[in-house]
Design brief:
Blueprint (H helix, E strand, L loop, with lengths): L6 H8 L6 E4 H17 L6 E5 L3 H15 L5 E5 L13 E4 L9 E7 L4 E8 L1 H8 L15 E7 L2 H18 L4 H11 L24 H43 L4 H16 L3 E6 L6 E3 L2 E4 L10 E3 L4 H9 L3 E3 L6 H4 L2 H9 L4 E9 L2 E10 L9 H25 L1 H42 L5 H33 L6 E4 L1 H14 L8 E6 L6 E4 H17 L6 E7 L5 E8 L33 H11 L4 E4 L7 E8 L16
Helix pairs in contact: 1-5, 2-7, 5-6, 7-8, 7-12, 8-12, 13-14, 14-17, 15-16, 16-17
Length: 670
């Protein structure tokens, strides 16, 4: 249900002598608040108040005022187009939700009708204002969209006009909320709404302006608005002048910064320019992160006669000003170090201020995308103490922003070679992937094809040889199935499309299942000797049994690949009293170089390289293990003393608790 006609148009049609005027949004806000203040200040009983908001978000800004108005009257009606949870209700006052495409969504109404006075504000937003604001992004920084909004309409204390406006709005209310018919009828009877009165001109209703209420709240609200507007204008002039000065300095420093990508040169230029322009005795810029306990002063500007601290170590751990900057993410200003409790209560800062003769102190963080990169400090060492101006603080903040961007650019340039190396590594990974998948798919396919062709073309082949051919084809098809399964498993784990089913398990049972998988796999040669050493008092673990067995099987299978037949594989588990059980799969095989202990868990990693492999596999097994262990909240890592020294793979599992299942056991899905 939507109504296309305008309340303002209907009002002007009913009372043709009315002449609409132009209002800006700020003026309407002041008028509306003045009308509401008049109701709040009056001692009248049960006035009729009808307010129509274009959107729910505008209503939300005034909701608390209408709760106060509701204490004055039970005849309060608020209309708005819903955006979240605004709906027809009668909690504090009557809420009326109209359709967003209703003509009301372009209008602004406030009507007050009391026994001894009436006033109304009926306006419609101009089409030019609507089109202009729609072209501006809703959250454009620095743009005040409300400042340009204009409305045309009527504001008057003429009772006949207010009565007619109330009638038009009450008619709308009844369309949306017919359940209010009795309440609306009562209001109409009390205030004479709907009675036939014809006003041919304005002079015939001059007596309607007379009232015996105190208009002081209304006048005070408008005077306050005018004073605030004058103050804002004066402040704007001052802001423009300060902004021009700030932009000149920022541009000069930005130009100096753009001449060099060397971070040391950039910081020295910034310290020099900022210190000179603000007349500081000392300007320091140094690198620092939130967790640092010390910093080295590398860049400094000094005026003649000021003590230099370039190259010295600057204490940060016990520096309460630095910690305040880190905690709040904004600058700290000290006007007089002799009277500031942050300085006088800190022995470290008191000593620094006395030693360096600092009387006024400013610390501004250099931040880029929320990360602390460094600090800008300004010291004033002369008397009287420096009185910080808002424009100066904004200026230092703007320069710190420029420095942050310059540091990131310089670091990016310096790290270009490292990025190129990473790209080369990614290219090698891609090549390895192609080589691995090509080898792992082509080789078994060729074998299967040869075996099947032999069986198909040689019907007289001995039964024993036929069995060999079949076994070979089955073995290689299993190899291909495992390759595809590993790809799918890793993909599901990384994307979160895995449903976990945790349960309390005995670790020994899971180890036995993993070893049985290894023994029944076709084509597997005799593995090395496998021993288990599990403490009899080991607590139950909490994990998904299938995935735990999968981790154990892959780790043992990996150990078998790189351990000779005469070697040994040992599976052990310990519990040191924490909430985790640590499982270790150790072998006496080829070992791992120390610099490769972490990358062995990368996808497609091959210890010998993609094209020089003596052991089969896709390089996905350990990557799958890491994803599974991370899934239940554990850790996995490798240890080895080097080549031919054997290796150990450790992972942790949560112990079973008596409480309900942990949060990680919830279904994970994307």
């Amino acid at each position: 249900m939507s109504i296309s006609t305008s309340v303002l148009s209907d009002l002007l049609q009913s009372l043709p002598y009315l002449r609409p005027q132009l209002y800006f949004k700020a003026s309407l806000t002041a008028l509306s608040h003045a009308m509401e203040d008049q109701v709040l200040a009056a001692t009248l009983d049960q006035p009729l108040v009808i307010a129509s908001f274009q959107r729910e978000r505008f209503y939300r800004q005034e909701a608390h005022r209408y709760q106060r108005l509701a204490q004055r009257s039970n005849q309060i009606y608020v209309l708005s187009a819903p955006e979240t949870d605004f709906a027809n209700s009668s909690e504090y006052y009557e809420k009326v939700a109209f359709e967003p495409d209703d003509a009301l969504s372009q209008e602004w109404h406030l009507v007050v009708v009391a026994d001894n006075y009436a006033t109304c504000l009926v306006c419609r937003e101009s089409l030019g204002s609507i089109a202009k604001n729609r072209q501006i992004p809703e959250f454009s920084p620095g743009l005040d969209m409300d400042a340009g909004r204009r409305f045309e309409g009527i504001w008057t204390s003429e009772r006949g006009v207010s009565i007619k406006a109330a009638q038009l709005l009450l008619d709308r209310i009844l369309i949306y909320r017919p359940d209010l018919a009795k309440k609306v009828t009562k209001a109409c009877q009390r205030f004479g709404i709907g009675e036939k009165k014809i006003y041919s001109n304005a002079t015939s209703v001059l007596t309607e302006y007379a009232c015996d209420i105190d208009t002081d709240p209304f006048v005070q609200r408008l005077v306050t608005y005018l004073q605030a507007s004058q103050y804002k204008l004066h402040k704007a002039y001052r802001s423009i002048a300060a902004q021009a000065r700030k932009e000149r300095l920022v541009n000069s420093i930005s130009t100096a910064i753009r001449r060099s990508l060397d971070p040391h040169q950039v910081l020295q230029i910034a310290a020099q320019e900022l210190g000179q322009h603000l007349g500081a005795s000392r300007c320091l810029i140094y690198r620092a992160q939130a967790s640092d306990v010390q910093a080295v002063i590398e860049h400094e500007f000094l005026t003649p006669g000021t003590v230099s601290i370039s190259g010295q170590t600057w204490e940060l751990k016990n520096n309460s000003l630095f910690q305040e900057v880190v905690d709040h993410g904004e600058g700290v200003c000290v006007t007089d170090t002799l009277n500031d409790f942050r300085i006088t209560n800190s022995p470290t800062l008191s000593l620094i201020a006395k030693k360096l003769a600092i009387r006024s102190w400013l610390i501004e963080p250099v931040v880029f995308q929320g990360r602390l990169l460094g600090i800008v400090e300004l010291h004033y060492c002369s008397l009287p103490p420096h009185q910080w101006q808002p424009g100066e603080l904004d200026l230092v903040e703007a320069i710190a922003t420029q420095i942050g961007a310059a540091l990131i650019q310089a670091e990016s340039y310096a790290n270009l070679e490292e990025l190129n190396q990473q790209l080369e590594a990614l290219d090698r990974t891609r090549s390895n992937l192609i080589a691995i998948t090509g080898h792992e798919l082509r080789t078994p396919l060729s074998t299967i094809q040869v075996c099947l062709e032999s069986l198909a073309t040689e019907p007289d082949m001995p039964v024993e040889l036929q069995q060999v051919m079949l076994n070979t084809a089955l073995s290689d098809s299993e190899r291909m199935r495992k390759l595809v399964q590993d790809f799918l498993t890793l993909s599901n784990l990384e994307s979160g499309r895995v449903e976990w089913h945790p349960e309390s398990l005995t670790l020994q049972e899971c180890i036995d299942l993993a070893l049985s998988r290894l023994r029944i796999r076709p084509g597997v040669e005799k593995p090395p000797a496998i021993k288990t050493q599990i403490d009899g008092n080991l607590p139950l673990v909490r994990a998904d049994g299938d995935w735990l067995v999968e981790v154990l099987a892959k780790l043992v299978d990996n150990a078998c690949k790189f351990t000779p037949t005469q070697g040994e594989i040992k599976i052990s588990a310990t519990h040191n009293g924490s909430q985790m059980v640590e499982v270790t799969v150790a072998d006496t095989g080829r070992g791992i170089e120390p610099n490769r202990l972490e990358i062995v868990f990368d996808r497609f990693y091959q210890e010998e390289g993609a094209l020089r492999r003596t052991a089969g596999g896709t390089g996905l097994g350990l990557a799958i293990c890491r994803q599974i262990v991370n899934g239940w909240g554990g850790e996995i890592w490798a240890a080895s003393t080097g080549k031919d020294q054997g290796s150990q793979f450790h992972f942790t599992i949560p112990i079973a608790q008596n409480s309900q299942e942990e949060s990680w056991s919830k279904v994970k899905s994307r």
